[in-house]
């Protein structure tokens, strides 16, 4: 009788080749993300010394193909370590993504408020109620100028200035 390795359900054959490939690609993606982090954030990740050394080496390489090869080597060095060695780095990357989502959402809210300011005066009154110390005259003139720029198809200088004003108000608020 000819038996295959799948005939014995009791035996642990380890991960499949497909799973091994997925794991290797996940480590490669993590290596790429770590290489893109600024050195100040990378220092907080508490990575092993050999991994840090290879990341530093990777950053000095400018040639595309050589950089890709070195990234593969970095992933190989990372696979030598347990997963626990990279939990700090994964947490740091997760926090970074969450922070980017929050910043993006805040920026979208400011853009929507800017559009509402240009469309109607009710948004202006709401903004003044929310921020009583705002320079009303300056904001009104910016809104008026942005409307004129939009109609005349001119560069949106005042439009951008309104956004910067809203951004500074939000930063002062936090």
Low-confidence stretches: none
Strand content: under 5%
The SS-based structural class is: mainly alpha
For the biggest sheet, the summary is:
none
Rg on CA atoms, Å: 27 Å
Shape: elongated
Helix content: over 70%
Number of strands: 0
The tally of helices reads 8
Mean pLDDT: 87
Distance N terminus to C terminus?
A: 74 Å
List the helices and strands in order. HHHHHHHH
3D structure, described in words:
By secondary structure, the chain is mainly alpha-helical. The mean pLDDT is 87.
Task: Provide a compact summary of the structure.
This protein has helices at 17-36, 39-43, 49-60, 64-79, 87-119, 122-130, 136-152, 157-173. With 174 residues, it is mainly alpha-helical.
């Amino acid at each position: 009788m000819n038996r295959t390795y799948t005939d014995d359900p009791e035996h642990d054959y380890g991960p499949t080749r497909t799973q091994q490939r997925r794991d290797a690609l996940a480590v490669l993606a993590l290596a790429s993300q770590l290489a893109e982090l600024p050195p100040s954030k990378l220092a907080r990740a508490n990575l092993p010394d050999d991994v840090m050394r290879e990341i530093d080496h990777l950053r000095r390489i400018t040639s595309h193909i050589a950089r890709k090869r070195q990234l593969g080597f970095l992933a190989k060095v990372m696979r030598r370590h347990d997963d626990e060695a990279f939990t700090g780095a994964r947490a740091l990357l997760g926090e970074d993504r969450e922070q980017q989502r929050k910043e993006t959402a805040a920026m979208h809210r400011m853009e929507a408020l800017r559009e509402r300011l240009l469309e109607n005066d009710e948004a202006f009154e709401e903004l003044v109620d929310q921020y009583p110390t705002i320079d009303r005259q300056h904001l009104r003139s910016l809104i008026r100028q942005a409307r004129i720029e939009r109609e005349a198809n001119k560069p949106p200088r005042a439009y951008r200035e309104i956004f910067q004003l809203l951004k500074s108000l939000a930063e002062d608020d936090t």
